[in-house]
Amino acid sequence: MDSLLLGSFPNPSLITTGGSCWRNKNWTHNNYFASSYAPTTASCPKRKIQNEYNFLRFKQSSLVLRYEGIEGGSTCQEYNRKHIVKAASGQSFESEPQTFDSKRILSSVKNSLDAFYRFSRPHTVIGTALSIISVSLLAVQKSSDISPLFFTGLLEAVVAALFMNIYIVGLNQLSDIEIDKINKPYLPLASGEYSIGTGVAIVASFSLLSFWLGWIVGSWPLFWALFISFVLGTAYSINVPFLRWKRFAVLAAMCILAVRAVIVQLAFFLHMQTHVYKRPIVFSRPLIFATAFMSFFSIVIALFKDIPDIEGDRIFGIQSFSVRLGQQRVFWICVSLLEVAYGTALMVGAASPCLWSKILTVMCLLYV
Prior knowledge:
CATH architecture of the largest domain: Orthogonal Bundle
Distance between the termini: 124 Å
CATH topology of the largest domain: Farnesyl Diphosphate Synthase
Order of helices and strands: HHHHHHHHHHHHHHHH
Number of helices: 16
């Protein structure tokens, strides 16, 4: 009877799916269960029938559980496949974080360049570069002077002077952070984009680079131009006893006039004349005229730059001409000085013995 009952149920090995280990385990358990009941059924037919009925129910429930386990396995496999497909399709989005990072890096670089651009005060950089180029051309005597030697000497002068220019305007911003919060809140130090440590590092680095370049070039006019600019720029801005000359209108104007009108004109001309072309020192008429014209122009710069800064200067005790005389009065003084400078330049150009110089000077001044 035992063999008949056991042989009437399907062999678990006929089921093709599911784990073999799991099937063997259940099959062994069922055999054990059937054999455990076999000896007890012989003594009592009623009990035997009840035991056979219970065994059949157990067997049926085990098959149902086994089938559900197999179905669950296939469902889990389908879930795994779906998960793998989603993971594979999700790889296409890996480029998005990379794109976001590249945009963030590009934006950071752009903001850094913009901050440095404002820190360097581009109008002073442009003015310095144009002044050096124009005065260097005064040393040219013939067309053959426009050579690689000329451009090399000009580049040395311009780069060293721009480095020193950044030192001077940077030191001025370090000394005027509180004033600039009122007058020029867009500057990096006043707005907080740059820390004081960053400003000090930039200023120190560019001053050292300027002197290093002037030294390795070996041009004494260039080196002395950088040194005098360094001294006057420091005295103009730094807040120590007997210095910070920008507090006094006359001393501030003298600093600007000395650098813009005298140092830039004479020193950079001599750099080209003596160092680049190896010629003797000669102060030509065009050089004298350029120095005189720039003297007027530098006074205008010294007066005009303080007109929009009157509010902060008055609060912090900077006695500029705009504070002392008023903005409108200083404005018209500047206009009068420019009229005198350009009128004199027009007459000098018209009296020039060189035809092309006469035409060029008069046309340019009339256009201005």
